[in-house]
Amino acid sequence: MDALTSTLALLRLEGIGPGLYWQLVERFGSAEAVLQLSPQQLPRKLPDRANAQLAEFQRFSLDSELGQWALAERQRCAEECIYLLHREDDNYPALLKQIDRPPPLLYVTGDPEALSLPQVAVIGARRASRAGLDNAEAFSADLAAAGFAITSGLALGVDAAAHKGALRSEGKTVAVLGTGVDRIYPVRNAVLAEQIVAGGGAIVSEMPLGTAPEAGNFPRRNRVISGLSLGTLLVEAAVRSGSLITARLALEQNREVFAIPGSIHNPMARGCHHMIKHGAQLVETSADIVTQLGGLLSGMAEQPSLFDYPATPTQALPPDQRSLIAALGGDLRSIEQLAQDTGGDTGDLMANLLHLELEGLVEQLPGGYQLTGNGAKTLSGLVE
């Protein structure tokens, strides 16, 4: 029996999680060796059902329940064009193999070679601000244009924006799931998943086919995101969030961590500020990341950047709207503060804010208004 089938069978044994799997394999040498042990030889007592499964396997081998499940899983992967990568395979991503106790198996749809490209993970809040989404897409587009694959978790918000940014630059992107690769989650991003595969990227998971989106799966997913990547960029995150866990995992894996600073009044910036205090590098442009990682594969200065796209011409805006953009600056401002700064009528102020919001230059957040990415570019035109 080969290593792949043995590993599938061992992971299917009831009561065997990733931690116990690695304890057993490190102690006894291989999954196949573990499957030949008696229950008394195991360092931990397994459920009665697991003991029965193990005894049946030792008696009937591939004709047992475990053996038949492993063969069926392999057959289904073959039929659905899903690659199964064992950690001992040559095409298992080398960077992921370096982390402590990496996933024993990876399920991959799309191009498995995408997993071995130099990658930058781009992560952040599901309910990110418009400015956060703009930053995620723009940074990802620039990094993809510089030759990096963009890795994220296919979630709503920053993750989806990161994947879209990479695709917009005709770069490759990798989506790591906390479900089986045959169960795209969230369903709303199913079309995006298809675009990732069509663009030469990959969908990857360590979970068996059919695995549902259970909460306990996502910390494992986050560990793979950071483990595949040379560096991790935190765009927006609350202090208590899965994105911050991913960033901490990246630091533990001795990978670079980058964070985009934000307004001190924006709750979604606090996670970034927390990580900057604890070792993440503050970045203002994608070039900061490229320089640090040394991954400049082709002259980035010559690459078109989403940051370089023309902003709304300042002369096209009425003077009171230009004044309002200047008053917003780079911070979150309340209606009262804006009224005081601009000296305008509250009714006119609300009308101008609505117009700027419809133009995509301003967004409303709890506590006030702030500029979007396009609004910030328009502000820079005012300053110049």
UniProtKB/TrEMBL annotation:
> Which chain positions lie within coiled-coil regions?
none
Question: Per its UniProt record, what InterPro entries does this chain match?
Answer: DprA, DprA_WH, DrpA_SLOG, WH-like_DNA-bd_sf
**Pfam families named among the record's database cross-references:** DNA_processg_A, DprA_N, WHD_DprA
- Domain Smf/DprA SLOG intervals: 85-293
Identify the residues that the record assigns to the DprA winged helix domain, covering every copy.
310-368
* Membership in a protein family: Belongs to the DprA/Smf family.
This protein's name: DNA-protecting protein DprA
